[in-house]
């Protein structure tokens, strides 16, 4: 049966055109009930033990997805009209709903009501799309009831008052979410129910729970029409809100419209915005701007201090909460200060933490109101209702935010699930993974089905394949961290008769096993990268691939993708070639072993000779790169020694970089650049590259100020002048130069993946490497970006056809965006894992050690502890102090007592005591104090 659907749309030229589409209606779409006497039941999901079959409307899915994900909710019909609406309104919820529907253990059935001849409805004259969709949902629910008859009760679940009224008038059984959940006899499920919004059913029932009669705490957000107008007129400024990790009452909004960061002081000026929200900001009058020196580190006890009534005008806007003001002289220019007047896009998600300790209510029954405290200090406390308080007080739990009313001091949310006992290492590690959106679930059977059977070995077909060169005769070796099992790169260096060297970088041929469009490829694409925690690795690809089939292990034949150069003894590249290959590694060395071989003059074996030749070439290449302006930066990488049985940290220290590390890095950089040039030459519009934007002057300002305070002149005109300045920044302290480089690293932008068709060639530049072009090719076992680049390289050589996805620029851009998101999250998770294990290590080991001051603030300073690679705040004042005891000299980067008896300056060495304390329940922290 054929129907016509028509709608109007606007073209790129601004014309409005009418579009007519044919809409096919069918009579062979089945209901999904296994007990149906009429339909084909082969794909049915709804079993006869269901007392009710429930039909949910769009708003129930959008607002109650946490409830729907709970296994207690089953026998659900998801209508195609609901799926389409959810997809248009919230892609994240849509993906979660699709995941439930595709889970074979859940009884969710997708019914294509929009294509069934008995359930399709045409829009009536004057009917809104929303009303038409609500009617379509009711028609489908009615059809199900008539179709199944007395075999089952069909129930429409809706919190829309009008939709429920019409359903009942039309003879359809309908209930609210809350009343349906109550009927299940599982009170704990009520904790998952999001409270109804205004205009929904039962709003009167919850009105008493809402703080509607209390005084206004925050100003109302402006409507979007007013925000849009304000942005166009330059009165308002748009940007992402970033909350200071040391001070949750201080935030920044990077604004392109004024070319600077706007500082937001205090929760009232943040006006219910969360970290990561896209906000509209109004600049405050200049007299209310704060000097840089007053950006204090917030103390744990300050949590409740920043409470203000919403100002009636900008003139009443509260000042920063810090009472410890410095001197009037020697201040730097004030930065623009502002306040949030609207939220353009929310960044709310689920948060991990625990409940504020509180006494159990009398009788230990009924609904308890509790405050949830996130582990992330940047997140405000969240008010929830729970019927299981006794079970949750000692647990790490997940909570979602539902709303934040301007008369409520805290946002309102609901309990999602329990993670585990507070303080348990497994629980706290899961918190790290959840907070950074890391998928650590086991690989599905569909993904594992894509793997070749084990044991796997190179076949005669592989060796006979004309695209693959047999390089098993080469003396190939790998150099990796100790205990590395996922070895994705190996090297060789052979002296040629003409005095030159043949140098090869051999990379695991992952794309030989990961085909485009397979479940394995889709999973790797989503995960984006392997994640390295202190005590474990969360793989992007299943272990049989990462540790066996693809890993370039010692004395085992493996498939590789090779970059081979002929180089002169001066490290000039004469020629470059790329080939798929078969190799057999003759040694799998750790960095320490490789370094020991090079350093031991008694060793003259062939592998050691190859290592020394490669190291000689690498030093020349490195020197040449630095001459071009490449930066040698430093980071505070920490290395733990882990107990093999308990997995607790036994020792902690800075990660040591050796010449062997730098040698491997040099050839990996060279391979990535060579491959980048090759793929861009053949595919100028769809190559995946990596760029590192130059830092702005504003980003470098803190570094310049710090350097000037200690008498160092850094020239930041280019990466070359900065590199030269850093080389000259030496002091008596052997650690001084590394500290300056660490501070420089902090000022840099993030390197990012991008599609070559999205930018112009000058924007491809990699600032840190001083390279015009760069990509990632050398780690396909652990990075999906490299998998994409392998496919591009193979296509450029005529080995494989370029997959269809490379014709879709929008899709490529979204893949690059996901890779950047996943890469950053992996870095954050690694850091959080280091922080967790640092707390575990120092909990039983209070320690005195030396630290360097890296940032001065009005009530203390931030220090860096070289021995352990730890950074944290040291407080000079407490809330008990009335202020005025310490003065900040921003120009000299000093903080000193008013009587001049004690002073501290930036990069000064101080002796500190490190100890784990718990100033707030369930929030342990490493406290640093000056001895």
Automatic annotation (TrEMBL):
A Gene Ontology biological process term: rRNA catabolic process
Ranges where the record places region Disordered: 298-319
Keyword Repressor recorded: no
GO MF annotations in UniProt: 3'-5'-RNA exonuclease activity; endonuclease activity; RNA binding
InterPro entries hit by this protein: Dis3_CSD2, NA-bd_OB-fold, PIN-like_dom_sf, PIN_dom, RNase_II/R, RNase_II/R_CS, RNR_Ribonuclease, Rrp44_CSD1
Pfam families (alphabetical): OB_Dis3, PIN_4, RNB, Rrp44_CSD1, Rrp44_S1
UniProt xrefs under SUPFAM superfamilies: Nucleic acid-binding proteins (SSF50249), PIN domain-like (SSF88723)
Annotated keywords: Exonuclease, Exosome, Hydrolase, Magnesium, Nuclease, Nucleus, RNA-binding, rRNA processing
Reported cofactor(s): Mg(2+)
Domain PIN: 52-165
Domain RNB: 468-799
Protein name: Exoribonuclease
